[in-house]
Amino acid sequence: MRWHSEHHMEDGKMCHPSDAPAWKHFDGCFPDFSSEVRNVRLGLFADGFQPFGQSGQQYSLWPVVVTPYNLPPDLCMKEEFMFLTVLVPGPTNPKGKIDVFLQPLIAELKSLWGVGVQTYDISKRQNFQMRAALMWTINDFPAYSMMSGWSTAGMLACPHCMEDSDAFRLIKSGKQSWFDNHRKFLPMNHPYRRNTKDFIKNRKVTKQFPGVRSGDEILKDLNNRGLRKVIDVDAEVVNAAISKTCGWNKRSIFWDLPYWREHLLRHNLDVMHIEKNVFDNIFNTVFNIPGKTKDTYKSRDELNKYCRRPQFAQNLVTNKYPDVPFVLNKSQKKDVLEWVKKLRFPDGYASNLGRCVDAKKLKMFGMKSHDCHVFMQRLLPIALREFLPNRIWEPITEISLFFKQLTSSSLTDEELRNLDEQIPVILCNLEKIFPPSFFDSMEHLPVHLAYEARIAGPVHYRWMYPPERYLRKIKHKIMNKAQVEGSISIGYIMDEAAKFASFYFKEGDPTLPLKDKRNEVYLDDIVDDDMFEIFKPPGKAIGAEGKRYLADNEYTAAHLYVLMNCPEVQPFINVFVTEKRKQFPNLNDEAVNALTEQEFPSWFEKYVHNQ
């Protein structure tokens, strides 16, 4: 619990929330709290799930979980350190009234802040008064509204832009569009600000984004508007009237915490869901998936009402719309999907994306958030490279690389400032390609993600992947579907009791089954000293047993892999490389590696037989 104060940043890289300005700012505001390094910093997440599956009755259950951030990176956000504090019962979604169920938690957090609790430090063998503070909440975008009180629907959906949003309603489809909302983030002398052709026609942008509001400014706004907490008398009527004139729909119960206004970041935008939505929109539009593409007849019909793109207008003679360059044709779709179907990843890196390919309808289906994460960052630029013009492929690749860099495990302030400068340009380049209907709120939110990472630290401490995995664990505790909440509560209490009891056993709780880690290897049982090192780790079957003959290219690849990864063969590789460098003095390292892959197996066979 003292790791956050004992470690030091290396080369200015943030690898933990304690390295970020938000943590240090809080320390500066409350030195009496930060002076005791064992005081706990907490994160809170809440998300709903359906306990009966997709085909069961409608039921929405909302666990509220807290996790400490004092721990080192290898322990932070792990299931062992996630604690179920509130279980909001179903069957309906609590929506804005979730604050009613959070009252006991907020009361306990206030007590932990003001008074604390007597705690025993086993490492120092002493008692101390431990206090705790809630740093921020982690939620998907709909739950963001429930926690913060700012509506995430409509034209004021962005919680950073707030009333400064330039979103508008499209004429034909009636949907909100965030098209041409990003030039205000550019430098004042940027040429895109004066461009009247590629964005909303005849429009120049001179205003600048005013910046994110501070906690004091937000609290003052809430007080001036007279918003009430949902537990107050007449709160529903008063808040409903006020919400018609602004984006606020309530005064969040988190403002009761005495330190909440001092935080630089109170609620996190969830990178996991934003990345998935951006990927879905790009992929479905490029593949022209019916019902999911943003390039529809309505969007074409209203396109030239906002932009100057006459080449995509309807042909008045044939009443047809011309093809657009960002959509693949049938043969190109087949090539991409066949490529995806043959892809193989390292074990544990990604799921089998081949199962998501629908070769008949030429689309992909059933992709989970992590599948979209891998495809977005690793595969999308490669998949589209040969089929799209450079002016279209490059912005798509840039948004892919943006998410890849943003989700790095360590980040520097300079890297994040660069990303913060690049993302408005990337979004503007996408606006030059796709129609206004493409840009919903999820395509706008990436413009704020680099700022949040610069303030609060690496993304993987603040996105929904760990909470989603934990919800899966909670769902598996439901043994009695007639009493869902009680079943989860009993299962959680039993797990906690077993966990704490296990501390009194030298080798852990003997009643808990031992579960090997993924691909666990035991080398202690290997007694054959003559066996090559590469064959000593025992293999592990994956899937059902089957037999087949290897193709020639597969056999060659397996043969080469064994030779190149066997320590006993390394001296012979060195001999081969030496011979080739004498034979061809001008070879560079890449050419030597290519020769080794092509010629070494046959050379090695001859060399051994001649000895």
Model description:
Helices cover 40% and strands 8% of the residues. It has helices spanning 3-6, 21-29, 31-34, 98-114, 141-148, 215-225, 235-243, 271-286, 297-306, 330-341, 369-384, 390-406, 413-431, 441-444, 446-456, 465-475, 484-501, 552-564, 570-583, 589-610, and strands spanning 13-14, 40-46, 62-68, 83-88, 117-121, 126-130, 132-138, 168-169, 176-177, 267-268, 357-358, 363-364, 411-412. Helix 12 (390-406) runs antiparallel to helix 13. The model has no long low-confidence stretch (mean pLDDT 90). The termini are far apart. It is globular and about 95 Å long. A 5-stranded mixed β-sheet has the order 4-3-2-7-10. A two-stranded antiparallel sheet has the order 1-13. A two-stranded antiparallel sheet has the order 5-6. The chain is an alpha+beta fold.
Brief overview, please?
The chain is α+β, with helices and mostly antiparallel strands and 611 residues long.
Please give the structural blueprint:
Blueprint (H helix, E strand, L loop, with lengths): L2 H4 L6 E2 L6 H9 L1 H4 L5 E7 L15 E7 L14 E6 L9 H17 L2 E5 L4 E5 L1 E7 L2 H8 L19 E2 L6 E2 L37 H11 L9 H9 L23 E2 L2 H16 L10 H10 L23 H12 L15 E2 L4 E2 L4 H16 L5 H17 L4 E2 H19 L9 H4 L1 H11 L8 H11 L8 H18 L50 H13 L5 H14 L5 H22 L1
Parallel strand pairs: 2-7, 7-10
Antiparallel strand pairs: 1-13, 2-3, 3-4, 5-6, 8-9, 11-12
Helix pairs in contact: 8-11, 11-12, 12-13, 13-15, 19-20
Largest sheet strand order: 4-3-2-7-10
**Mean of residue pLDDT?**
90
Indicate the overall shape.
Answer: globular
- Which range does the strand content fall in? 5-15%
> Rounded to an integer, what's the Rg over CA atoms?
29 Å
Q: What is the percent of helical residues?
A: 40-55%
Secondary structure: number of strands:
13
Euclidean distance between termini CA atoms? 61 Å
Structural class: alpha+beta
Low-confidence stretches: none
- What's the tally of helices? 20
